Known about the structure:
Blueprint: E1 10-18, H1 21-31, E2 37-43, E3 50-58, H2 61-73, E4 77-80
Antiparallel strand pairs: 1-3, 1-4, 2-3
Amino acid sequence: MDKPEIEYPCEWDYKIIGHSEHALRQAVASIAPPGHSITPGKESKQGKYCSLGLTILVTDEAHRHKLFASLKAHAEIVFVL
């Protein structure tokens, strides 16, 4: 399967999942540069997890991967999609 061609710079969407919306928002603020947008996501049935959508301008593939790795490494973020 061929790798999709992405034209940079472009807006990229991440879905982040954690235990607290407030903690997720703080995590994003500590990682993402100004100009990003956050959209509310869903909460799991038992309320253990919640998600947020993060849209951010990425300048190139390395920048996109660095953001993904930084989000994934943050203690408050359980999953990044």
